Amino acid sequence: MKSIDLFVKNWGTKDAMAPIDIDDIVELEKKFNAFLPDSYKYLISTYGLVHTPNVLTKICDLNVGISEVQDFLSLDDVFSLSKLYEMSGMPKGHVLFASDCKGNMFCFKLSDCENKQVDAPVWFYNHGLCTVNKVSDSFSDWLEQFNELEEE
Prior knowledge:
- The chain is of the alpha+beta class and 152 residues long.
- It has helices at 2-11, 22-32, 38-46, 54-62, 75-87, 139-151; strands at 71-72, 94-99, 105-109, 122-126, 131-136.
- Helices cover 43% and strands 16% of the residues.
- A hairpin with a 5-residue loop joins strand 2 and strand 3.
- Helix 1 crosses helix 6 (139-151) and helix 2 (22-32) packs parallel to helix 5 (75-87).
- Strands 1-2-3-4-5 form a 5-stranded antiparallel beta sheet.
């Protein structure tokens, strides 16, 4: 979970971050009939909804070809937006958890969340193209790519 702690230290703004109760996370998992990765649950139950506006600036400054994360979604938004995006063209079977500044979404595949696991691949939904592509083999590795920007 070191990469998660470092991500929050490097990129998280301090305002409005409040840890999310684990019971609320379990309730969300029941709604999806899925197990969210422990790494993601650690982030939101320890730190809350991280807002990272400086990631975009750094990516632009370095001209790096990765999609920036800006906001982690509230649990209500995780559920409602996952359903709403499916109705508006996103392939079915995804749990949205964060967005970039353009309305694209980062998500987990429900098929990757059938069993309890420490980590799960991260997928990127491009709403303009209606495509879902894998951007990382795990949530921790996905956050680590942003940590590496700080080292450049």
